[in-house]
Amino acid sequence: SLKPKKKAPPLQKPGSKPIPADVQQAVAQYSPSSVAAYSGERTIAPLDGYVVTKRFGPYTDPIYGIKIFNDSVSLRPTESDAKVKSVLNGKVILAKPTAMLENVIIIEHDNGLHTIYAHLNVIAPTVQVGKRLKQGSIIGRAGKELMFQVTQRNAHIDPMQMIR
Q1: What is the DSSP string of 92-136?
Q2: Any bridge partners for residue 74, and if so which?
Q3: pTM of the model
Q4: How far apart are CA 70 and CA 33, in angstroms?
Q5: pLDDT, tens digit, 9 for 90 and up, residues 119-140
Q6: For residues 103 and 145, is the Cβ–Cβ distance under 8 A?
Q7: Is 7 helix (H, G, I), strand (E, B) or coil?
Q8: Is 136 left (phi over 0), alpha (psi -120 to 50) or beta?
Q9: Nearest to 71 by CA among 54, 94, 93, 48
Q10: Distance (Å, whole) CA 73 – CA 70
């Protein structure tokens, strides 16, 4: 007898958890953002000391074993309650708590560049929408993790390309 062929699951690592239908649907609909190279001058890091815990680019989700594109970097501070700094001069366009990313700050810079700082424990009281900040200004504090993202116009940039 001819049995119908089963549809292969999305690129999944052997031994990983079964993928829920909603996750399968999200993965099927997901298309990676456009990516660009950073061409400006190198700048300071948002933290004085850190370990990169998640790199920019494609990676395999450890729970479901599916390939995902990470459009930011995750940095673990080497000190507790670490100061987070603006990496360039710019204007604050968003500074507020969110449901998914905790406290988030977005700073707009020249040439359509934006830096996004998420999972902040606290936003500095001096940081307000519309305020201009100098490179190195303390914008908040991070505990376990800082998610750092860079965009230019409609493209994502590997934040590590910016840092000296």
Answers
A1: EEEEEEETTTEEEEEEE-GGGEEEEEEEEEEE-TT--TT-EE-TT
A2: 54, 147
A3: 0.80
A4: 9
A5: 999 999 999 999 999 999 999 9
A6: no
A7: coil
A8: left
A9: 54
A10: 7
